[in-house]
Amino acid sequence: MLPWDGDFAGRLDRHTVESTLLRGNPLGDPHERPLWVYVPPGYDDGDERYPAVYVIQGYTGHLAMWANRTPFRRPFVETADAVFANGAPGCVVVYVDAWTAYGGSQFVDSPGTGRYHSYLCDEIVPWVDEHYRTIPDRESRAITGKSSGGFGAMITPMLRPDLFGALATHAGDSLYELCYVPDFGAAVRALRKYDQDIQAWWADFHTRPAFTKPEDPTLLQLIGVSACFSPAPDGTPELPFDPATGVLRPEVWQRWLAWDPVRMAPDHAEAIASFRAVWIDAGTSDEYYLDVGAEAFRAEVLKAGLPAERLYFELFDAGHGAIDYRYPLSLAWLAERLAR
């Protein structure tokens, strides 16, 4: 396992895309975004059109991290290339950036962060179809991600079945009473140092190197997801619990629950039943109980009418982190099932 970059059998193009929808976003984040597009071996040798698989990241993930190399593991841009070099049917693979100042967008439209769902669906998909030889049809388009990216991969085809007909979710955020609520108590304890004011923590976070205090990951996720799911009219994040007592704020918490894929599924049953392929997996010791969430989402997908033969489900021995070796497995599975 070489500790330096390997050669590609296909080609990875690195672009910058100017977004109209992200211009003037509430956090002042850049409206010019990096976009990576991979084409498989043989793409340049003819005029064949290819299915497309869109790849989105977990919370605090940004595009350049797809090329990060850890000891004894290749980055996903290389293991994805190996999928096609080893004989899987070719696909265009699109790596999308949805970073915000809070570390993520949850791939939704929100007055607290910006129009990232519309950016993905209404700007990036058409841009890719215009510049690459894709098959511009939902039967030939999939989306995949892990954690918050897995959440995005679950909800995007439900909301836009006209664009996406297949998905893969690895430990995607779901069943919120298990994956989010445990952090609320930890947040209350952490906020005692900030007079129970998450904005005071946010101000402190910017005065020092990030993640130098143990509460940083929990509070960053809570302020960011609140900005996505429960912003005030002016965009200020509203926590779904009282920061002093931890008691749930029912009206705010309900706004979070409305984004739970398990709870969304019944309202999107017709779309789910039409999906060409659905991959769901998670580690059996996932720290956020996303293996339980995966079980719940699978049950709802089947209840919605998806034929069992279109569904792949697996729980494997792992926690939430370091499961990047799962990504090429679902990519190869999707490549076999997308229409050509």
UniProtKB/TrEMBL annotation:
Highest taxon of the lineage: Bacteria
The protein, known as: Esterase family protein
Name of one Pfam family that matches: Esterase
